[in-house]
UniProtKB/TrEMBL annotation:
GO terms for biological process: cell division. It comes from Shewanella maritima. It is found in: Cell inner membrane; Cell membrane. Belongs to the ABC transporter superfamily. Pfam families: ABC_tran. This is Cell division ATP-binding protein FtsE. One of its GO terms (cellular component) is plasma membrane. Residues 2-228 form the ABC transporter domain. SUPFAM superfamilies: P-loop containing nucleoside triphosphate hydrolases. It comes from the Bacteria. Gene3D superfamilies: P-loop containing nucleotide triphosphate hydrolases. It is a peripheral membrane protein. GO terms for molecular function: ATP binding; ATP hydrolysis activity; transmembrane transporter activity. Keywords: ATP-binding, Cell cycle, Cell division, Cell membrane, Membrane, Nucleotide-binding.
Length: 228
């Protein structure tokens, strides 16, 4: 589903972010991506979403070499990926409903279909009945759930999360991970970047570990304990 072959990324300023990274995530697999701040986690996710392009090597999504995806077609590729951020990136002057509906509005779904899908997404994350609320009125954990509902509302086959529990206490963090687990159980490929090793240790998933841009653990399908 997601394959990196000898992938390197050097930013225009000369900053080496990734060096000869190899790994393969199977369809439906759930995995963690860890490493210290600056190790290259965000860069790796940005290569998958084509926010950045690899300097060398090959990134394939669903068997497609994404270097061959033209700029015009990048939005179509991105529809297959639900992206979740630490800071939610919510529109605070819009309702919960409007925030979650946004990807469907952009795709041109009918009003009825949008209502149905937004309701289902909010139900899934445990926020049914909060459609008319402003995100401002919600707790940090609830705001994160709105961000997750928005990411999954068009049922993407891939979910990427960048420090999704960064601002949450351990109990809420675990709840969010359990939520990702339900998407994984439903067949979605899930990759979660986090430096919260305590959280990772409590779950059984493969952990890809980056150190200064090099993958130092988890490249194979054998579950490994992070080696920091
Ligand atoms: P992480 O997510 O693990 O903290 P990043 O992928 O954000 O790591 O960063 C990896 C390295 O690339 C760091 O040294 C960082 O400073 C550098 N970097 C990240 N983004 C850019 C950018 N847009 N331009 C130049 N250097 C960058
Ligand atoms: P944008 O439309 O924002 O320019 P692109 O994905 O086309 O987005 O490019 C993002 C960055 O990656 C730019 O700095 C661009 O020069 C660089 N870039 C684009 N394609 C490639 C490529 N095939 N190899 C290396 N760098 C690339």
């Amino acid at each position: 589903m997601i394959q990196f072959e000898q992938v390197s990324k050097v930013y225009p300023g000369g900053q080496k972010a990734l060096l000869n990274v190899n790994f393969h995530l199977e369809q439906g697999e759930m995995a963690f991506l860890t490493g210290h701040s600056g190790a290259g986690k965000s860069t790796l996710l940005k290569l998958i979403t084509v926010i950045e392009r690899a300097t060398a090597g090959k990134v394939s999504i669903n068997g497609h070499d994404i270097a061959k995806v033209s700029r015009k077609h990048v939005p179509y590729l991105r529809r297959n990926i639900g992206m979740i951020f630490q800071n939610h990136n919510l529109l605070m002057d819009k309702t919960v409903f409007d925030n979650v509906a946004l990807p469907l509005v952009i795709e041109g779904f009918s009003h009825g279909e949008i209502k149905k899908r937004v309701g289902a997404a909010l139900d899934m994350v445990g926020l049914y009945g909060k459609e008319r609320h402003s995100p401002v009125m919600l707790s940090g954990g609830e705001q994160q759930r709105v961000g997750i509902a928005r990411a999954i509302v068009n049922k993407p086959p891939i979910i990427l999360a960048d420090e999704p529990t960064g601002n949450l206490d351990p109990k809420l963090s675990m709840d969010i991970l359990r939520l990702f687990e339900t998407f994984h159980d439903a067949g979605t490929t899930v990759l979660i970047a986090t430096h919260d090793l305590g959280l990772i240790a409590r779950m059984k998933y493969r952990t890809l570990t980056l150190r200064k841009g090099t993958m130092v653990g988890g490249e194979t399908d054998e579950p490994l304990t992070p080696n920091m």
